[in-house]
Write a structure and sequence with these properties.
With about 90 residues, the chain is mostly helical. The protein has one domain. It contains 6 helices and no strands.
Length: about 90
């Protein structure tokens, strides 16, 4: 499932360096990583898919991290272009 691929890409970014979590709901990068790893394991479950979609919404925790940490362009490419149809099917 392509949502699993999105999670893999997000995990790579989160692990690549310092992340600013000020505006997110996470206390640490490890918390974000752990949740994404858990979601990746359960991604065939509609509840896991819904949670990922929630985290990816505008002003969602993952978008807040992306903007605050300087990878907003990559974030927009991932959620709007590459995985947008999978995140938000018509």
């Amino acid at each position: 499932m392509r949502l699993s691929d999105l999670i893999t890409e997000l995990l790579e970014i989160l692990r690549s360096g310092e992340q600013d979590l000020t505006w997110s709901s996470y206390a640490s990068v490890d918390d974000a990583v752990n949740e994404l790893e858990d979601l990746r394991q359960k991604i065939s479950d509609p509840e896991a898919q819904q949670r990922l979609r929630f985290l990816c919404l505008p002003t969602g925790a993952l978008e807040e991290i992306a903007i605050s940490s300087g990878w907003a362009k990559e974030w927009l490419r991932l959620v709007n272009e590459e995985y947008g149809p999978d995140l938000y099917p018509q």
